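Case 393 in the screening queue. Each case pairs one protein sequence with one candidate compound; here the compound is heme C. For every case the pipeline is the same: read the inputs, emit a complex structure as tokens, and attach any notable structural observations.

Predict complex for case 393.
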Amino acid sequence: MDFFARFLNGKMLFERLETRIMIGITMFVATMVLVGWVAINEGARMAAFDRQFAARSIERGAAMFSTYCSTCHGTNGEGIAGRAPALNNPQLFGHDFIPEINTERNALIAEKAQLETELRDSANPVTAERETEINARIIEIDNRVADLEQQALPFYQQAQTPILLGYDIYRPDRLANVSWGSNLYNFVYSTLVHGRPVSNAYFEDPMPNWAQVSGGPLRDDQIRDIVNFILNWNRDFTIEDLLAVRQFAVEPCAPTGPCGGEQVANVDSVIDAGGYEELRVQLDAAEGDPTNGQTLYNGQGLTGTGAVLGCSGCHLGGAQAPDLEGTWTRVQNERLPELPTYTDGVDYLIHSIVVPEEYIVPPYTDLMPKNFGAILTVQDLADLIAYLETQTQ
Ligand code: HEC
Ligand code: HEC
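Case 393 output:
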């Protein structure tokens, strides 16, 4: 009572100045401790929240997978022979069962290819001495590769069934095999958004496109839930996981793939042999098909060398890369007047795709993959350019 009486009399709750200072300090310290405690625990609280969020996304993805995807890709993502490849699949995640052997073997095979190119280069013939040296090294490489394959034999025998189904123990990474320049999330996401309308060349029915933006039934958040569900299959894969696969992804240049086992000449090889003049001559003769260019641009089909392109993934919307829309108009009205080294729009586009580091469009950074010359044929490049030429506004 005394307490309130003092208050009402307009007096201080605590009369002594020292007491008031002490209380002030105590309150301040207590507040800081409380804020600190909350801040320290915020990370853990957010992480738990993120985990729950991710778990719910995966759960929703699982439900949609079973509704929309399992009829082709199998109940458990194991694939269905002749219908669609496994996604719950060491190959999609690039799991290598014999990594040391493959690393060494691949390096040797690349070295051998380089030596053979040197031998064949008629513009710079090698000396007799160098030729002997190269041939000796090639024999050495062949012997070492045979050795490594001997070491791989136990795994080769275990993997008999997958090998019969088209699995290649020496090329275990799907993304590397289609020369995909970005990560697995983007690969799955863009496959879902655009589908692969031409995949009925080697499967019963093509992979449909699912996103509303491309005329499919699913919203973007639903697509992302499904991607999260698929990526959640990643783990330390075992041989049993490999044996559970019922259908492997079709290797483009396998005998049954779209390029029928043929090795096709790429843009780089044309430039190596005859320079950009020769490339231009062949490109003009090729008569680009804009419809196929669009298919390639959107990653909906395979290039002549069997690659899947991710152009639209970066160029959509203009945030990471110049917007596709209006490309041709911009090239004519802005690039060519500023960059007189390029003789015309086609010349500019060839260089932007094959040697993108030559000119970086401001304010963007140098993100374009540098391997398009290797994975495009002259016809692919002609088709892409024909498509970009339709982008006027
Ligand atoms: C009508 C059958 C069919 C349905 C339904 C289907 N797919 Fe596919 N899917 C395919 C075929 C065929 C391929 C192989 C395409 C190719 O090799 O170019 C494929 C390829 C894929 C790939 C790329 C695999 C790779 O290694 O290249 C992913 C990812 C994928 N599908 C996810 C899904 C998801 C997720 C769903 C459900 C929303 C789904 N698919 C529904 C037939 C189907
Ligand atoms: C990883 C992201 C990425 C991918 C994939 C990509 N690009 Fe690009 N692209 C860029 C960026 C960033 C720029 C701007 C910087 C520069 O000039 O390199 C660019 C620039 C360009 C330009 C010049 C545009 C202008 O306005 O002058 C063209 C043309 C182009 N890209 C075409 C393609 C084609 C065709 C493909 C597929 C074969 C492709 N890009 C794939 C990121 C990408």
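Case 393 observations:
- Residues 68-69, 71-73, 84-85, 87, 92, 174, 188, 191-192, 196, 199, 203, 205-208, 210, 226, 249-250 surround heme C (ligand 1) (CB under 6 Å).
- The radius of gyration is 30 Å.
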